[in-house]
Amino acid sequence: MASKQTGAKTPSPEQFAYVRSISDIFSLYILISAIILAAGAWYLTTREIRTALQKGAVSEAERTAFAILGATRSHMLKNDQILVHQVIEEIGLQGSGGPVRILAKNGRVISSSVSDGENNTIRAAECALCHEKGSSIVKDAGYRIEKSGKERLLTYARIIPNSPQCTEACHYHKKEQRALGILTTQIPLVAMDAVYANLVDNVWMLAFIWGSLSCGITFWALRRFVTGPLTSLSEKARAMAAGSLEERVGITRIREFDAAGYEFNQMAAALQESQQTLQDMNVSLESEVEKRTGELLAARVLLERSERLASLGTLAAGIAHEINNPLTGIMLHTSLAMGETSEQGKADLARVSSEAQRCATIARRLLEFSRSDEPRTAPLSLAKVLSESVELARAHEAVKPVKVVLPEGDATIVADQQQMIQVLVNVLINAGQAMKGNGTISCAISTEGSTATLQIADEGKGMTEEELARAFDPFYTTKEDGTGLGLAVTYGIIEGHGGAIRLSSKPGEGTVVSITLPMAKSDDRLF
After folding, report:
1. What's the CATH code, domain 375-524?
2. For 28-47, how does the pLDDT look when each residue is reduced to its tens digit (9 = 90+)?
3. Strand, helix or coil at 396?
4. pLDDT tens for residues 176-202?
5. pTM of the model
6. Could you give the count of Cα atoms lying within 13 Å of 166 in the half-sphere of its Cβ?
7. CATH for 75-190, options being 3.40.50.1010, 3.30.1330.90, 3.30.450.20, 3.40.640.10
8. Does the fold of domain 375-524 match that of domain 75-190?
């Protein structure tokens, strides 16, 4: 069926050109935005990096100051300025930093790791790290960063605090005095600046990569959702015009493209569906013709078989009537003569009587085969009829020693009970004879729709394809003492019930007899 029209209009070439110009402006906007964002990210990142590195340098200077105070504390308590000076000099010789100084509160140099002159007054800039202008010491520590040539230096100052040990009787410091002096040290920032420069380069690289990726993704998105769909729509239209009805275009998020693509796909789908419908109808027609041809062939085979059976039945009835009277006379006179003859004669007469009896049995079977009595049907339990048939069949020497497995399920069929027992007893005896009294006969009942199927499987020698094809033919038998009428009569009874009987077998794998019969209506079922 053709799809319904949505009423949406396909964009014109002018609209396509307008959309392309909008996409170009949008691309430029994205590019500028990416550059601005990259620059802002670079600035903020580098500032955070510089702050973090600077805090690390201050922490290092603070650790150095505490280490110096710890190393000189005992000498200061003894007021041994010589040893204090020696420790300061040794630290200056061992360290890789700048000069270490101990200053008095007024800025006079008490001890220094460099020879800048003791008792000299240091410049006020270093004192200002712990002082405010015109005031006493207000901070425990402070630092500043200054440039010396091409290098930068961090100058760190920390007060030397007064303590109870310094105010005892042996010392002259007052308890009210907060600081005894100031310790200053310098740390070159060459290594920090090198790390910072390297990190800045890396940030620049990341910003460049991020900007490039942003631009690339933007251009890809525009190509994917704008210029790409336009090109694809044009190409698919040309391909469909050339006869390729499988062509489809992808639906985008842009309204104009969505409408155009949807209408294009709907048109292509309608054309393809019409073509596919024609192909399916052609295939369906061919399949239906093949099916009907097979059914006609099967019906022809059944018709030919029915006609053949009918003709044979008429012939068999005539033969049976013709030979019944002579056979009756033979058996009567044989019985009378047996009382007037010798022992040898009695044996001969017994053989004559036996053969005459056999001929009478054949004549009776011929009459049964020729009769077409209408079955007197009624709702029956298939499992119950089978059970009764098994009990009757066990009287036969071929069935007596074998094991019969009855089905668990059941079904209500519409059939003539006596005719069904006749059919099942015949099938069970055939199965027992095929197994020569050794094996198992398995029975199963299944239902499908309005029919029930009884399967009787034996473990005999099986049948060839040629034997299967002739199994229901009258007078065809593979048994030495068989008449070839059992399955023919069975076939006629099942067909008269509106059912079907099938044989499946392979040499060495046994035989399965499947009997399908109509089931009773729901109201007439027994369970």
Report:
1. 3.30.565.10
2. 777 777 778 777 877 888 78
3. coil
4. 566 677 877 887 877 777 887 888 788
5. 0.40
6. 19
7. 3.30.450.20
8. no
